[in-house]
Structures
1.
Amino acid sequence: MKCIKVVIFGCGNRGNMYGEFSKEKPHKMKVVQVVDSNKTALEYAKNYYGLSSEDCFNSFSDWLKAPKKADAVINCFMDQYHIETTMPLFKMGYDVLLEKPICNNPKELVELMNESKKYNKTLMVCHVLRYTPFYSKIKKIIDSKELGELVSLEMAEHVYIPHMMSSYIRGKWRSENECGSPMIMAKCCHDTDLMCWLNNGEKPEYISSFGERSVFVPKNKPSDAADKCLTCPHMKDCQYSCYWYLLNTAQDPIVFNNAVEGKRYDEVTVEDKKKVFLESDSLGKCAFDGPQDLVDHQATIVTFKNGVTASLNMIGGTSYPCRTIHITLTSGEIFGVFEENKLTIRKYDKEHFSRETKNIYLGNVGIGHGGGDMRLIEDFIDYLRTGKMSISQTNIDTSIDGHLVGMAADLSDKDRKTVYLSDDRHLEER
């Protein structure tokens, strides 16, 4: 059976995560070209995938001039470049796996979907959580009807302090103006995708959302605080201080990936880190100073055409990272915490006016978004090889509505109005 040859756009954390699949199952996937503007990332990818210099490109435009060598593209460029670097690919004959969020413009989103269909090419989205044992088990229980019909979904995402700081306060996604995505899309389009997928692809209709930026704002900065954490009198007292990243390596793949020329994140020293924090425009700054412009907490409510309601509560800067879900069906409930990988199932017992309760522990699921990363890339490659669809498959047809919910939530929050999603996928303020 055919081995799929791929190009990786963006050799950072996400691109290399998917690229690892070529090492795990080389008979299924081979990386033949890479594109990245960062010299350190490009050199690492060249050596890791065993490529020649002619197959390594430091810009998309340079890659476009090269001979076609691959069957598919894994596009992990930053959000704001997705449309311009994906739209030409279908006509060129590529199937595409595209990192989320796809984009933040509903018109461009529909145009991209239509372009993939025009050339009969596959466009799948990196909604990795669908592939986790946790959420795929929930999907199977709902679809089995053993607990009756779906009534409501209550979801929450708690973004814990280190991740909030490294990605959304000081990192690449700290500013909608810079990265192109609001918080609901940058962090929570996984969740808006899940609510649509779990509701069996039913059409979302009305979306209302309220977000606030009230924690990480200048008024909360101590009067004697410095602009840089490492020169601040509160360096060792503030829970948001980047000082703690000198002592802990847990966030290094996000914070220091390609931050020091010639070094990978696992090669940087404490002195390297100090230098980065003191010299960077954002990585070492006071958490209250900016330039972040994203909300730090947001509540969203969605109603669907079949009468199901869903809510999503995002809180940034929590002491514990977790996604929770509580699903109510006509004859039972499902409750779980994603990070614990455990589900509680309650089924109504009409004879005793009580409930039967069952706990399901889903075991060791592997690294990378609860085991979803490798399952996603394998599903993409297997679909290109066999044409067989999985229950989790994130093709554009089943991914577009979750994205539109996120865009509608952002519009609702900014304009303080309810947004209606029309049948032809236009967002209308009501």
2.
Amino acid sequence: MALLEFTDKGIYCPPAKVHIDPWRPVERALITHGHADHASWGHRAYLCTKSAKPVIRYRLGDINIESVEYGEPKTINGVKFSFHPAGHIIGSAQIRVEYKGEVWVASGDYKLEDDGISEAFEPIKCHTFITESTFGLPVYQWKPQESVIQEINDWWANNKATGKVSVLTAYSLGKAQRLLHSVNHEIGPIYTHGAIENTNRIIRKQGIKLPPTRKTTGNISPGAYQGALIIAPPTALNAAWIQKFKPLSIGVASGWMALRNIRRKRTADKGFVFSDHADWQGLNDAITATGADRVIVTHGYTKAFTKWLRQERGLDAIEAHTEFEGESLERKEDKEDNS
């Protein structure tokens, strides 16, 4: 019996009788982070990190949820679990599972670069590592965060100088707050779409500092937002809402901007290669740091990355099917909500 198994409900730990990030209702769910493809509604009981709990409760409503500190052990039916920083978004975690001397780690989503607002990634030694592979191809190589943020600042400043509104798309949980934390807010005022501002409110209540923002309103007078930066979820690009801010320039912050054909498909003036997931080098470095002999590859370029790990790195690697989306082109948590 494997310590962790892949079932039609999610990743399952038979001796503890718990699931990790299950996508169908279960009795007890251990949740790596608050994105909708990992934290779903309908489980009888939830367990997550203390810094992930407020947003998960906000998104899922009245649920039975318990939380632990990073590194705090939690023993369930003789199996020892602990949550460790994944660096993906605020509160995100890798889940370490130990039983009878065997250690597995389920990575959830992760990135190695310290973004300054999320808890920084912590490598965990293990025998088996379950890794995402959202960007598991050599074409995905990220620039340092400060370099991309400077590109965004320059674009915003130039738009302001030419009388335009800068509209930048980012997922409402994670990337939006990372951008708010990092951009130069002295360039001009920052506004946010309702879906993002609602999330900001929850995060600020946790004591996490974000620069001042204002929620966009439906009543827009000519020139009211001139020179401002508006951060909105990707779905807003397809809404009539965005046309109210003309003249404007649209920017997209996404790891997918590394691909030219994706940039062409987006109705954007500027693409910034900016992801909350590990790039090709980050995935390889993370696997090396675990010391794992066995690697299970989930969501993303699973086939290609598994082949690389086997043939080029000599690891015992297999791919596994999950319903996690990674950084998909559409995310269900980013439905339009400007109320």
3.
Amino acid sequence: MRIILLGAPGAGKGTVAKLLTAYDGSVQISTGDILRGAVKAGSELGKKAKGYMERGELVPDSLIMEIMEARLQEPDCAKGFILDGFPRTIPQAEDLEKLLAKLKLKLDLVANLEVPRDVILDRLTTRRTCSNQDCQEIYNIKSKPPSPDGKCLKCGSPAIQRADETVEAITVRLETYNQKTAPLIGFYGKVGILKNVSSLSSEQSVKEITGAIKK
């Protein structure tokens, strides 16, 4: 399958993407992952991206698209791909359309994961992340808690609340999403490949998405 997952922060895109990869072997691709991968590999594109990232600047869309083009042509994408949190803006979506046409690839579906605001706030404010950069296991103090003393169950490092997962920070992130990314719902709705999916249950979301693709 070749799909895009849209949804506000905390909508469950990462969890749904992982479940979908198990469904048919498609690979999960997020902008952050491919940028970090390119930097780690030391490619020419990675070196360019690293400069922006080290200066705390946003990596330009043109460079992100070059890295995305290289990523989509890697062998593991032959079975399909799940774009997790990309594109984020209308210009990125337009650039992605051109790139897919160039690579002779076609999207099967754009799934918009819908979650009420109060659920998002609850999910993110109760989330904890392993502070070990090589682990970064995700926990939730309600549904999947770390150890009683707040340590990661995998590596023993402290499980922390990220600075962008306080109520104040989440409110800003949601406002940014509504301004910049939510317009993509209308964009893909006009194209005719959008499906709105309730994301209160990741398993149910996957069922709806795979069912829509089969049709």
4.
Amino acid sequence: MTAIHERHSEAAIRDLIAKENVKFIDLQFIDILGIVKSVTIPTSQLGDTLEHGKWFDGSSVEGFARIAESDMFLKPDLSTFQIIPWTRGANTTARIICWVHTPDGEAFVGDPRAVLAKQVGIAKELGYSFNTGPELEFFLFRSNDPTSPTPLPHDQGGYFDLSTDLASHVRQDMVNTLENLGIEVETSHHEVAVGQHEIDFKYSNALTSADSCVTFKYALKAVAQKYDLYCTFMPKPIYGVNGSGMHTHMSLFKDGDTAMYDANDPYGLSQTAKHFIAGILHHARAMSAILSPTVNSYKRLVPGYEAPVYISWARNNRSALIRVPRINPKAIKATRIELRCPDPTCNPYLAFAVMLACGLDGVNRQLTPPEPVEENLYHMGKDERAERSIQSLPGSLGEALEALKQDQVIKEALGEHLYERFIEAKTQEWDEYRKTVSQWELDRYLPLY
């Protein structure tokens, strides 16, 4: 496999296109909900696209533009060129992730990728670089029909179980596919719930990690289809079992070295790291609308299923919102924190942008985090939590949106255009859910009343 760094130049890409007989190129971009969109061109159009961009109708894309301002164009980021493995053959296709621009050539303020890049630039001005390592969990269901009324897990495995059924082979195929797409996988394993899995890829800068996230999701769905399985990143597809999260490890670097470590601190954390933690905790309720952006997300964020509910931090306590993984003295550059509330339905560009903005707000204001809580928060009474000023995450998407509306730091990080479009789209989603009569309501109330 050709290394990514060798594919940055147009000449190198053209050589690879000729060698691999690539016929088409998907020009990919992301809407505000984190859904991958694409305009496909024959490879003969690559030169013109690189010189002039490729025009498309932005009014048809969620959260992008009104009809009166619809014309936009895509500008390819050549560093993201990859051949899509499952298309190899007569119609071999590559992909390039693109920046979205307005007709006057300016970066489009509603482009989620540009929002993250802007926030990374702000951090750079302060002397910091920002790395993230998301861990995406997912379910494999037997039916390749996502509208099937009863999701059927493919296997009966448990946490870290070593199995010889089809699921283990599917995971191996998924890992190979991700590697062929330039994503360096570190581990894969069965998760807690039946039919649930996790594949982790290498920690990297935030923009690369976000690109990998969106590629990861559609690649795994494509592999699952080969086996007549359905791969879903829905946070809580099955009642009574663990949901799927996207625990995200993050760290700041300064001058090429970690800004997170202090050998003299009991937790091994620098003051910068603690300020960053304080910023995340301070904005946690408002961040929820971005990090856990669906109605279903809040059915995962309930006590008893390892998902965080209470706003706190700790070293060993997995019921805390932020966990500090144990630090290896021989690898202090790996010092990081883990935020456990995001789920895979989030737009990773927006998620990483607000994580960075809120953490830096803590650094800039030198906020002090509360004392860490190592006790199991689920076993702690309401009165004790109140005495220790431990707040809860929002209990619904509606509650999260109300918190988001009060947070100026997140609004500035997203930009007014994207912020307003996001709230508009998610408010509509919440309103539709509130007015829907569910089967649970019919089963419970119709016989009684």
